[in-house]
């Protein structure tokens, strides 16, 4: 059981992290590098002259981008450990776990870890005004936990009381509100900030769907292998 859990999480997390890292390098990193030009003051919009929306950006950097890929693989391996553990609990309760059902697990993971906190605390490009980072981290973790519990209650709850508690948990962090800056001072154009948020959500959804499907596939495969070994 323990090896099934570790192998499923490692393979699913590493494969997903590699794909997610490549998607981030293609779609997200150029937006970040563009925003950094405004953060550093190299570009300034609303000046006397029009500013090109397509500046020259740094190309591939083996050290920077290689470390980014490794960090992304480690991050999604951590997510996979959580997801596979929950899949094991759900399977004990009678749920069918495979690559197809894993897609739903992936969507739920995206909602809990990306969409729910991002609904009020949107993804931020460099150079924008923001509240204290510790306060934002506390709010982010609390929102992820409440959203995760709410989604579990929606999926496995058996009565309206459970679903009602789930609705309250989903709304509570946003009714309380996330930490916000006192003033807006960011120099980055809103078009770049909006594109960054859209790309972050899009890549996040793709990565979580892949993570759920990979985790379901490897969990089912390792389970079948363990059964075959036990019956041999």
UniProtKB/TrEMBL annotation:
The chain crosses the membrane at residues 7-27, 67-90, 102-122, 137-155, 160-176, 196-219. It comes from the Bacteria. Coiled coil: none annotated. InterPro entries: CbtA_put. Keywords: Membrane, Transmembrane, Transmembrane helix. The keyword Nucleus does not apply. NCBIfam families: CbtA (TIGR02458). This is Cobalt transporter subunit CbtA. It comes from Sulfitobacter pacificus. The lineage of its organism: Bacteria, Pseudomonadati, Pseudomonadota, Alphaproteobacteria, Rhodobacterales.
């Amino acid at each position: 059981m323990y090896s099934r859990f570790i192998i499923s999480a490692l393979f699913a997390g590493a494969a997903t992290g590699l794909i997610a890292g490549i998607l981030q390098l293609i779609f997200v990193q150029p937006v970040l590098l563009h925003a950094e030009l405004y953060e550093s003051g190299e570009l300034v919009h609303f000046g006397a002259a029009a500013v090109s929306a397509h500046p020259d950006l740094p190309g591939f950097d083996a050290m920077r981008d290689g470390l980014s890929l490794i960090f992304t693989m480690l991050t999604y391996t951590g997510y996979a450990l959580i997801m596979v553990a929950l899949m094991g609990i759900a399977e004990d309760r009678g749920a069918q776990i495979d690559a197809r059902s894993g897609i739903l697990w992936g969507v739920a993971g995206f909602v809990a870890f990306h969409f729910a906190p991002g609904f009020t605390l949107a993804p931020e490009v460099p150079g924008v005004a923001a509240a204290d980072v510790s306060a934002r981290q506390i709010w982010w973790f609390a929102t992820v936990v409440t959203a995760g519990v709410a989604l579990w209650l929606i999926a496995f709850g058996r009565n309206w009381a459970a679903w009602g508690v789930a609705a309250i948990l989903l709304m509570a962090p946003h009714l309380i509100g996330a930490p916000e800056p006192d003033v807006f001072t960011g120099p980055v154009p809103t078009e770049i900030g909006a594109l960054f948020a859209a790309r972050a959500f899009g890549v996040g959804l793709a990565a979580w769907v892949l993570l759920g499907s990979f985790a379901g596939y490897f969990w089912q495969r390792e389970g079948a292998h363990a059964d075959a070994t036990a019956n041999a």
